[in-house]
Amino acid sequence: MQSLFNKYPKLWRIFDILLPFFATLAALAVGAVMLIFLGANPFEAYGALLEGAFGNINALADTLVKATPLLLVALGICIAFRGGVLNIGGEGQLVVGALASTLIGLSFADAPGTLIIPLALLSGFLAGAIWGAIPGLLKAYFNVNEILSTIMMNAIAVQGMNYLLREPMIDPVQLESASRIPQTARLAVAFDLPRLIPTRLHLGFGLAILAAILVYIFLWRTVIGYRIRAVGLNAFASRYAGIKVSRYIVLSMLLSGAFAGLAGAIQVYGLHHRMFTDGSATGFTGSAGFNGIVVALFGHLHPLGSIPASILFGALIVGANKLQRVMQVPTAFITALNGLVVIFVVSSEYWRRRWARRRETEPVEKPPGATEAEVAT
Amino acid sequence: MHIELRDIRKHFGPVKANDGINLVFEGGRIYGLLGENGAGKSTLMKILSGFQPPDSGEIVIDGQPQRFSSPAEALGKGIGMLYQDPLDIPAFNVKDNYLLGRDRRVILNYKTARAELDEITSRFSFEIDQQATIENLSLGERQQLELTRLLVGGAQFLILDEPTTGISADQKDKLFNSIRKLAWEEGKTIILVSHKLDEVQELCGEAMILRKGKMVGRTPVPCSNEQLVEKMFGQIPLRGERPVYEVGEPVLELQNVRIPTYRLTVENINLTVRAGEIFGLAGLEGSGQQLVLKACAGLVKNDQGRISLAGQDITHWSYQRLRTAGIGYIAAGRLEEGLVAGLTITEHLVLSQPSHKFFIDWASAQKQSEARITQFQVVGRPESLADELSGGNQQRLLFGLLWESLKLILLEHPTRGLDVRSSDWIWEQLYARRNSGTAILFMSSDLDEIIDRSDRIAVFSGGKMSRILDAKTTSVEEVGRLIGGQE
């Protein structure tokens, strides 16, 4: 395989881009084996999945609705990972973004939508930014591992949400009733994000696509974005060149959190029109904060690559529901299938890097920048 | 540009890396800064380039005392340093790298970058493809790019740290021509940090020599290599008396060994070390002696030739297998390769022993550890962490961890950074080992140690091994010539 790539460099590029799709196919193949054991016909099952995701206009709209938060979180992940920090706190950032925007909507119920919608989205963006900046500051100035701190910040955000939705922010109707479902009142209809077509598809999807383009321009055309990438690739050389590395670490985390927070606000204003909790994070987020990481990796940590990646994962989620209904396979299968896709995609990334490295070292006589010791190992 | 260093001092713990250095540099000249590893060259240059501040002393530029808090600030004052490993970002292309730390606008200014790059590269006839990513450039081209960046950044004073390591002869000539042009036509000051004497002779007008943190001489070059070597290593009294040893069977044999690495290829190594013999490898740092040692330890691979231990072919054996076969190895990096920072002495002992049990017998390990501490005179307790020990005690601990019976001991800089007492103690241990029939192969940058302790000596220069010298009959002049690469 390796020699083939060396002979045809173009082939390598195509393979490189298509690798996540091959990985997905491989995951589906393993899933097919599981389906056979469950007594279902894999072809029928995957047919149902495809139909569920893309079969009609409503299905397609649902796919895109599911893709929206995934894409926004993935954009933040692109910024963080490009800046050399690992943001695992998408869930928490999404939750605080949703909470902040809900608070705005509940507080100014009589204000016009044209004012409140931008204000709410902005507040979600800012709340996420703050939630992301805290681990960023801890990392940059106290050398606290950001993986740990972002996970802890997730826990804090979820418990904060549980408290707020059970007591201060709870729907007054629920307060009266015996069930006391932890959710807020429905936001004013005037605040609903406009529908794009007469389906559930809302403006949020358009905003996410716009954001992807802006993040692309930011990372590759502006000085700040360029420095974030430089710091992520070689913090030492960047410091030498006079870049204040700590600041850019904080900035990447801050922006990363901001996009997750925006995703939260859009979920509230575009889809749910209220905030609710089942006690865990996933009840509201649908694990978008974690799945966004997979989407970003799937899209090669590129904002534009994240667009098709988010649609694919949105399709998997929506299609899976249909699959479950039609084929009567247990819900656990869908979770397993999602997990398989993640495992295959992440490990394909590993192989891609290995092949890429070998490709670079083979034709030239030496790996640039390697020291004697590195060559020795 | 006139730069003066006044009484620069820098200590790292008890080590005086720079011990009151005074230097003056005039514009338009090329200086060579010479000195063995640990002489304080890098420390001095890092101070001058703003990487680290001195403990005391000052840098005076054109009469103005300066303090730099970062390399970027030093470059702002006109001092730029070209590092041995270029400080660039391999995944970026040339233009992006060029902009690193330079562009302060909002949108990246590729147009100006292209123009500036074109101007400088044509002035010095550099050939850099602006679209290429760094990964596809040779080391020489990456240097040219760095140099361009420094020049555009306003460098009037350029420090080049071992710039010719790993670049082709053709690129070296090109680099030297650009350096001459910079100094002679544009009036810039150049410092060439090197331990390649020939290059200093070829390029520089004056050589400055550091030894053990002090300036020990300035001399106009070209001059004789022996003169430079003598200043670098100091006067070495030859000692006639040395313990007699019984020549045993060959223990380690290298036949036509070739070790290719990215920077240096060592070729045609043929040597035999016999039981009870101490064999010293001399040469300037990075001349290939360390690669040979590491190849014998199984830590780097030779692609040609044969290595055998007591008649058995051990070529390409793993380090673990060689250990079991009776090879002990003590690396130069005590805390990097030798010991584990954060583990106690007892834990190191357990780690070093071959064990086939599932549970660790801590009680007996503790007892053994106490015994070793007494036997090897380590100042520490069984529960002391390795990184809390002083350098000398770390080295004692490393000796304490060597297995009982060994066929061969390999050592890198066995006494580097140690005081006289510790050094003598180390060598007593090694003599005791050799008396019980162990062969010893070591490298050292201390010429005194090489000549004083070895039975036979091989000198490395640029990856080539000299003829083998008998320590009894050789002279410092002879070793000096071989170090300088002359036969």
What does this entry look like structurally?
The complex is a heterodimer of chains A (377) and B (487). Chain A has 377 residues and is an all-alpha fold. Chain A has a domain at 68-314: ABC transporter involved in vitamin B12 uptake, BtuC, CATH 1.10.3470. Helix content of chain A is 76%, strand content 0%. Chain B has 487 residues and is of the alpha/beta class. Chain B folds into two domains: 3-233, P-loop containing nucleotide triphosphate hydrolases (Rossmann fold); 250-483, Rossmann fold (3-Layer(aba) Sandwich). Chain B is built from 17 helices and 20 strands. A six-stranded mixed sheet of chain B has the order 6-7-8-3-9-10, sandwiched between helices. Chain B has a six-stranded mixed sheet with strand order 16-17-18-13-19-20, with helices on both faces. In chain B, strand 17 (408-412), helix 15 and strand 18 form a beta-alpha-beta unit. The longest helix of chain B is centred in the middle third of the chain and has 17 residues, at 169-185. The mean pLDDT of chain B is 86. The chains are: A mainly alpha (377), B alpha/beta (487).
CATH architecture of the domain at 68-314 in chain A, by name, is: Orthogonal Bundle
Question: Tally the helices of chain A: what do you get?
Answer: 17
Structural class of chain B: alpha/beta
Helix content of chain B: 25-40%
Number of domains of chain B: 2
Known CATH architecture of the largest domain in chain B: 3-Layer(aba) Sandwich
The CATH class of the largest domain in chain B is Alpha Beta
Q: What would CATH call the homologous superfamily of the largest domain in chain B?
A: P-loop containing nucleotide triphosphate hydrolases
Pair with the most extensive interface? Answer: A-B, 29 and 42 residues
Structural class of chain A: mainly alpha
What is the CATH third-level topology name of the domain at 68-314 in chain A? Answer: ABC transporter involved in vitamin B12 uptake, BtuC
- Say what oligomer this is: heterodimer
The overall pLDDT of chain A, averaged over residues, is 88
Order of SSEs of chain A: HHHHHHHHHHHHHHHHH
DSSP, total strands of chain B: 20
Strand count, sense and barrel status of the largest sheet of chain B are: 6 strands, mixed
